[in-house]
Amino acid sequence: MLLNLLNGKSKSVASAAVLVGFFALLSRILGLLRDRILAGRFGAGDELDVYYAAFRLPDLVFNLFIFGSISVAFIPIFLETYRSDKQRGWETASRTLNFLLFSLIFISALLILAAPILIDKFIAPGFDPSKKAEVVAMSRILFLSPLFLGLSSFLTALLQTFRRFLITSLAPIMYNIGIIIGALFLVDFFGIYGLAWGVVLGAFLNFLIQLPAIREFGFKFRPRLDFWVPEVKKILRLMIPRTLGLATFQINSIVITAIISTLKAGSLTIFSFADNLQSLPVGIIGVAFSTAVFPALVGAAAKKQLNVFKDRFSATFRQIVFFTLPSAFLFFLLRDQIVYLVLRTGQFSRLDGRLTAAILGVFCFGVLTQGLSPLIAKSFYALQNTKTPAVIGAVSVGVNVVLAVLFIYLFSFGNLLSDFLADVFGLRSAGDFRIIALPVAVAVSSLFNTSLLLKFLSSRLGGFGYGEIASPVYKMLIASAAMAAGVYPLLYVLTAVMGEETFLAAFIQGFSAAVAGAAIYFLVAKLFRLREADAILRRLKNIF
Question: Keywords assigned by UniProt (predicted)?
Answer without folding.
Answer: Cell membrane, Cell shape, Cell wall biogenesis/degradation, Membrane, Peptidoglycan synthesis, Transmembrane, Transmembrane helix, Transport
